[in-house]
Specification:
The complex is a heterodimer of chains A (111) and B (118). Chain A contains no helices and eleven strands. With 111 residues, chain A is mainly β. In chain A, β6 and β7 form a beta hairpin. In chain B, the strands form two sheets. In chain B, strands 2, 4, 5, 6, 9, 10 and 11 form a seven-stranded mixed β-sheet that branches. Classes of the chains: A mainly beta (111), B mainly beta (118).
């Protein structure tokens, strides 16, 4: 059974820092891995999708890497801003397109 | 363009009541998913439709939960005889379903319905 773990559970940093969020999964038979952002009381916003054959994806200040064989992904956020404060969720896509999720990392970027 | 919409946004139910949650996916999206997110947890898969066919309902927690998508567009998640443990945010997502394998497929989420059972 696929299990997804995210570390750390919570992170508080001053504005401007570069930071790394970690995601690990137990079954490497995935179609893709996705990073989402969730703001309080709101839905989920897709940030990056890495296909199983890819090693990384970039969007603006965000970079996500995937090492499928070791079951790990990292989300790198450069030059963090207070507007980046949110919960970041990692999900892997397996059988029947369903997403298996981690518990998330709650990020606070302090001005 | 319009995204995924869900209604109601908030629902308070007394224990034992039946509730119905609606999801309007993005027009033309073939796949539709329901997830349940308890407070402080990640979402948990409930069920998946491809057009009107329910291909996977393995995540539905009990036979009190029922989902349908009769015309392959709007979907309804129904919970009968609600219990306090059903309190959660119910998220709906849709995707285009390009090709046979979902390698490049992004799921687009609605804002969710927050259900509180008293």
């Amino acid at each position: 059974k696929q299990e997804v773990t995210q570390i750390p559970a919570a992170l508080s940093v001053p504005e401007g820092e570069n930071l790394v969020l970690n995601c690990s999964f137990t079954d490497s038979a995935i179609y893709n891995l996705q990073w989402f952002r969730q703001d309080p009381g709101k839905g989920l916003t897709s940030l990056l999708l890495i296909q199983s054959s890819q090693r990384e994806q970039t969007s603006g200040r965000l970079n996500a890497s995937l090492d499928k064989s070791s079951g790990r992904s990292t989300l790198y956020i450069a030059a963090s801003q207070p507007g980046d404060s949110a919960t970041y969720l990692c999900a892997v896509c397996g059988d029947n397109r369903k997403l298996i999720w981690g518990l998330g990392t709650s990020l606070a970027v302090n001005p | 363009g319009a995204g995924v919409s869900q209604s109601p946004r908030y629902k308070v139910a007394k224990r034992g009541q039946d509730v119905a949650l609606r999801c309007d996916p993005i027009s033309g999206h073939v796949s539709l998913f329901w997830y349940q997110q308890a407070l402080g947890q990640g979402p948990e898969f409930l069920t998946y439709f491809q057009n009107e066919a329910q291909l996977d309902k393995s995540g539905l927690p009990s036979d009190r939960f029922f989902a349908e998508r009769p015309e392959g567009s709007v979907s309804t998640l129904k919970i009968q005889r609600t219990q306090q443990e059903d309190s959660a945010v119910y998220l709906c997502a849709s995707s285009l379903a390009l090709g046979l394998a979902p390698v490049r497929e992004t799921q687009y989420f609605g804002p969710g319905t927050r259900l509180l059972v008293l």
